[in-house]
Amino acid sequence: MSKHMHPWHDVELPHALDAPIPVIVESPMGSRVKCKVDKATGLLIVDGILLSAERYPANYGFVPRTYCADGDPLDILVYCQVPIEPLAIVRARVIGVIKMRDDRGDDDTLISAHSDDPEYAFVSDIQDLPALRLRGLRRFLQDYEALEKSKEVSMWELQGRNEGLRILEDAILRYRQERPRLLPPPDRGPTSVPSDRATRGAAHRAH
Question: Is the pLDDT score of 193 beyond 50?
Answer without folding.
Answer: no
